Amino acid sequence: MIAAVRSARRVLQIAHNHPRFHAGGTELTALALHRQGLADGDDSWFLGALDETQIVPNPGTQMIGLTPDHREAALFADGFRRFALAQDDHFGFLRELRDYLEWLRPDVVHIHHLLSFGLETLHLIRNTLADVRIVLTLHDYYLICANNGQLYKHDTRERCDGPSLTACLGCFPERNASDFAMRALDIRQALSLVDHVVSPSHFLKQKFEASLSGMPAIPVIENGYLGEAASFAQAPPQDDDVVFGYFGNISAVKGLTDLLDAAEILLAQGHSGFRLHVHGTQLFEDPVLARRMEAAVQTLGHQVRFFGAYASGQMASLLASVDCVVFPSVWWENAPLVIYEALNAGRQVVCYPHGGAPEILARHGAGILAERSEPTALADAMARVLGNRALADLTPTRPLPGRAETLQAYRALYFG
Q1: Of 12, 89, 199, 371, which residue is least crowded by CB atoms under 10 Å?
Q2: Does residue 349 contact residue 324 with C-beta atoms inside 8 Å?
């Protein structure tokens, strides 16, 4: 195999998917850093992972190029065990990943998630490229929580304060103590191969440092606004109703049910001067949530509209149609990109007081926080806007970091 021609210091961004197939915050962040690097003259590359629900690999290989120059590519992932964060396909996935690394020979590998790639990837990178700089960004809690990396108890709808044997066995009654001990040991060994572990928020940093004692200090690099250019959206046409907007994937942990409950509480309290625009779709079918949305159409009538999926390029125009964004996520979200999208557009954000969102909002002089993380308190926070529409006016107190600033902060770790 002919080696890739090197034009500058070479950086490989790795994420567990690609925004073309799954536009999650982790994938969007990794791709934004890659494309910003190219714009800045870096020799930047992006590698994702895909599965059989998204693409069929070419015969004889598990690698597929996603751009004509193959600077964006993906590996077809099979053999991944989620609980253990283990990639067992040594003769397919890991063999082709090793070949790719030997061909590319990056100076820096920046990993944004280990899903699909597995802990084995960290060992493979270090064994293949002994002197490479490895940076790992923590976008969620998978390394300390095997339950979808959310520190959330789905059966009781409770946030988990942190891993403990009792709590973890409650989520995985079919497992035993040794399973969790081995998982933690494997993770610690893999992390010892990483040069820098980074958090996008102080909240997540504190969770990890409390759960993984003895780790080196975790620097915080804010994700920031990842769009092409920062610009306020035009104010929505003024009428008597305040328009609240929900943006993002629709799932149980994203809190749409809480938002619909809050809207019904507002109506019951006599507040009728609002509308709710819901933008997003279910990535994974949830019949219970679908029925809750159908019921809301009956209870809220014209005051709620479900607009369905949207493309990232539509975000500015959609934000221009709302007065205020509501972010009702019920798990410990770390650094939700929709918060930065809203602030970039000059839209105030109503949200719960947990997780990383309040930290971001406070940093930029924004946010209307519910007193508690439950629908009645969320309705009270929304009612504050209904009672004083000026609360929806927003001018951030400091500039939002863009993707150029975010990449520059990472370069201090890449090359410092």
Answers
A1: 371
A2: yes
CA 370 – CA 393 distance, rounded (Å):
18
Q: What is the DSSP letter of 390?
A: G
Task: Kindly state the average pLDDT of the residues 280-284.
Answer: 84
Taken in order 225, 226, 231, 232, the sign of the CA dihedral is negative
**pLDDT at 294 (0 to 100):** 96
Q: HSE on the CB side for 403, CA within 13 Å?
A: 19
State pLDDT tens for residues 354-409: 999 999 999 999 999 999 999 999 999 999 999 999 999 888 788 899 999 999 99
Write out the H or E segment, with its range, that includes residue 199. Answer: none
Token pair, residue 103, equals: 């061909």
d(CA 263, CA 269) in angstroms, rounded, equals 10
| Sign for the pseudo-dihedral over CA of 319, 323, 327, 328 | negative
| 3-class secondary-structure state, position 285 | coil
Torsion angle of C-alpha atoms 327, 328, 329, 333, degrees rounded to 10: 50
Q: How far apart are CA 203 and CA 359, in angstroms?
A: 8
Instruction: Give the whole-angstrom CA distance, residue 251 versus residue 116.
Output: 21
Can you give the length of the chain in residues? Answer: 416
Residues 6 or more apart from 408 whose CB is under 8 A from it?
none
Q: d(Cα 381, Cα 274) in Å, to the nearest integer?
A: 13
Cβ-based burial of 122 (10 A; exposed 0-12, middle 13-18, buried ≥19): buried
User: 342-373: string of b/e by CB count within 10 Å (b at 16+)?
Assistant: bbbbbbbbbbbebbbbbbbbebbebbbbbeeb
pLDDT value, residue 57: 77
- Two tokens at 379? 């309705």
Cβ atoms of 45 and 104 closer than 8 Å: yes
Contact indicator for 304, 276 with CB cutoff of 8 Å = yes
